[in-house]
Please model this.
Amino acid sequence: MHMRTLYRFILSIGFLALSPKAQSQSMLFDHWFWPDYQLSGNAANRVGNRTLPPESRLQRYDRETAPLIFQGQFPTQRIRNLLAPGKLPITAFTIEAWIEDHVNRPIGSLLMAKSIDQSETPAWALGYYNRKAYFYLKTDEMEEPNGQQVDTVDVELANFRGYKRYFAHIVASYDGDSLKIYINGTQKYAKGQKGFIAYADQTECEAAGYLGNEPYMDLGNHLLHARLWDEALGKKEIEHRFGELQRMVERGELFPNQFHFNGGPYLHHATQDAMSLTWETSLPSTAIVRFGTNLEEARTLEIDQDTTLHTLVLSGLTPETRYYYEVIASAAEVIPKDSAPTKISSGILSFATARRDSSAYSLAVFGDTEARPHINFRMSELIWDERPDFLINLGDLTDGGRKPHKFEWNYEYFLGMTPLASRLPIFPVPGNGEGDLYWYKRYHVLPNGEAYYTFTYGNAQFFMLNSNEREELEPGGKQYEWLEEALKASTATWKFACHHHPVYTSDENDYGDTWEQEPSDLGDLQVRELAQLYETYQVDMVMYGHLHTYERTWPLMEGKVSPSNGVVYLVAGGAGGNLEGFAPTRSWFSTKLYRGHHYVKMDIHGEKLYFKMYDLNGALKDYMELEK
Model:
């Protein structure tokens, strides 16, 4: 018998002995990697049912093994021993990864069966890095590669404009005679390859994230799902798998065959005697909401409407009071899985009604949460530690969460923000990312059904505008006239205006490419029409996002610096969007610039205002005091 044939025979006998299932066609693992975001301490709260990300097997008594360097990067996160070595497939197998890439920096992930010895090449590896898919398979009939040089298949993803622009279903299928690679249901590569898979003596199955360019990013923000089969799936089966994942994205569903919250609970539009509450479930459901200062004596509201999206106003509340609440949802459908529960609970959460007019209060401000739930969650952790009374989001809650892109709300916005937004109410304005207002209006209680509104909190009044409608902001326009009347009628000590687009900005290229020697308009000229109203009616501060930077101006009046009676303009777009830069020279109005993710906190009492801006390390980067 030829030595290579003998080797294959012995290898097959060994694996068959270790793995009784090896002769049958089966799924070897099926993992969802969504990060399990929870606030710390007593606020740690897992909302409803969820599938937890996998953990390394035997991690209590284990030792670190050599990592695999991929595209010149060391892994930032590893989940080892996803599968016992004796259960690894011998010949025919399929490995699939469901990837989302909605950031602008190179990131990657890798699923692999590798030796614990760094000198060995992997038996197989399926990966993604910087808009390319990669696969490598080593069989016993291949010539041994030299050192770490491996013959890796790389498939360009056409600038990664995949499903919904950001998703790639990457599948490698091997039947013992040929290898095929599929991207989003379409075969992209095929070649002949024979032999048993050449596992090393000590092989471990691992998922690793190569996310060093994205601070705070979790593997599950990128590698959403992975499956390993001990059979070679065919084209129709792979198309079917891709179709299942597509349908989940369309519904904003995180987990298949599991009744769960895929949005909220989410607090908004808080007043002294009411709180608005929104939540969404993966299946149509009814609900019971319990709330009160003590849940043992709680009020109970029954929601009989059988739908996925629910909004409820908790009314009859006492000002400046702590409340506890719980949402218990019941699915109306039978889930096709005997063990899947049809009732879920949000757990016990809390909120406080708005402060009285004479009380001290605190708020946090941020903008452009967009596409990085990991940044938004990190920001949420820091904000929660300071316990402000409410939050303001300056628009672009999503990067493009219009009607066809519902997933941007569920997969990106709610995923990172729910731990905080289930405890602190948010007052938003719309950005161009949700310009059609389709999901924006469904997820928020908006006075009179408009995307512009005003509210009071303590001794301040906030004027919230929809700057997507530029013509309405010009003199004679609908919002311009509304704003002037609202400002005239205001008796508040402090006045703040919020919208998405900038009055003034030192941005490098949104209003003229300053690095290409073009003149800049230094902001949106149509929105700047509002400056006359802000100055006439003594607005204290105007806050906006759109630019993913931080900039605070001097107090301005009539196009000049006026420290005694001017209006401060603030860009605070430093949440989860792609960071931007500034023009090569300082603008005449600018007093503080910062390029980095950040949030703002303001503390107000009477005629004193303390203003602070923090980065995501919790470092104070800007400070200001205002006094009437």
